[in-house]
Amino acid sequence: MPAAAPAADHQRAVFADGLALDCGTVIAPLAVAYRTYGTLNADRSNAVLVCHALTGDQYVAETHPLTGRPGWWQGVVGPGDAIDTDRYFVICANVLGGCMGSSGPREEMTDAAGRGLGRPWGTDFPHVTIRDMVRAQARLVEHLGISRLLAVVGGSMGGMQALEWAATFPDRVFACAPIATAAHHSAQNIAFHEVGRAAIHADPDWRGGRYWEDGLIPAQGLGVARMIAHITYLSEQALARKFGRRLQGAAALTLLEDTFAVESYLRHQGSTFVRRFDANSYLTITRAMDYFDLAAEHAGDLSAAFRGTATRFLLASFSSDWLFPTAESRAVVRALNKAAANVSFVEIASDKGHDAFLLEEPEFRHTLAGFLRGAAERLGV
User: Fold this and answer.
1) What are the pLDDT digits (tens) for 220-272?
2) Active site includes 214?
3) One of 156, 281, 317, 350 is an active-site residue; which one?
4) What ranges do the domains of the chain cover?
5) Which pTM was predicted?
6) Architecture of 11-184+293-379 per CATH?
7) Angle, CA of 129, 46 and 373, to the nearest 5°
8) Taking 80 as the threshold, does the pLDDT of residue 209 lie above it?
9) Catalytic: 9?
10) Looking at 57, 84, 203, 321, which residue is catalytic?
11) Does domain 189-286 have CATH number 1.10.1740.110?
12) 321 catalytic, yes or no?
């Protein structure tokens, strides 16, 4: 197994019959690792599915078992929070292709009969799509005995999943909140991903994606990929406010290997990331994001993806997000309006960039809380 494969406890559902993927491959058995919070009510009507972003995982509201850091959406998911675990039964699953227990490149490869082959999938793991990820989550939701979700909520890639849920399973989603996202990946975003992938491929420890055979990880390349991506998650204002041109551990510039504070920060982001994430998973998931195009799935008409839907929508964007700018959320809103959907939209004024949905933004949290509360009251939850 790969040198970086960590030990962590997961709730895990395994489906022996597997899942037919958009690429034509059947992956069997299918494993979905997940966590739940709160209590499912008697009529199973209070379930909220939270979909994570590219480098997230199922530990949305608890201390992460590998990093020891708080869950990635603590403060949004929890008792009395916007996604209130005293009221809702919250589910968060590691995406298909991920590296925290769901079927993915780091998990053991299986043959056509589902028998383990004693080595990880690595680069043999099939191409997956956002729709494949959603279908895997749907298997989990069904396994938990839930016929319809009160809501699906997600930011960034999680927002793509939320949109796909509403398009693919409209009768199984009462409310949908795609946040800081888009109906397709832009050329600029694809370009940033490709630079990150190129950094991984250029790492001498990449070994054609079979680094696990030598107990290695392409840490340098994966770290650079993380650094590049992290820049896109922030805004110029946020970088200036947090770091400016300050030096790390020096009062004045000496020109002798001085390190700017922002350099130190990015290096830290890269070095911590490689200890919890798998390079082949990074390649798999970034490709899934790049391939996502909800309109293309419906002959170029985005509104057709939602025609006749009874799902209620809240779309939220952030004013300084240049990775998924407000214009892309507005395009989804226009398509939903054309489909006569019930849709609300808000742009939150923030200088924190794309990561604003993960950070302390009271207006966003109050808006999300109100949307979910309204959906719950409508259903009598």
Assistant:
1) 999 999 999 999 999 999 889 988 888 876 665 656 566 888 888 889 888 88
2) no
3) 156
4) 11-184+293-379, 189-286
5) 0.94
6) 3-Layer(aba) Sandwich (3.40)
7) 100
8) yes
9) no
10) 321
11) yes
12) yes
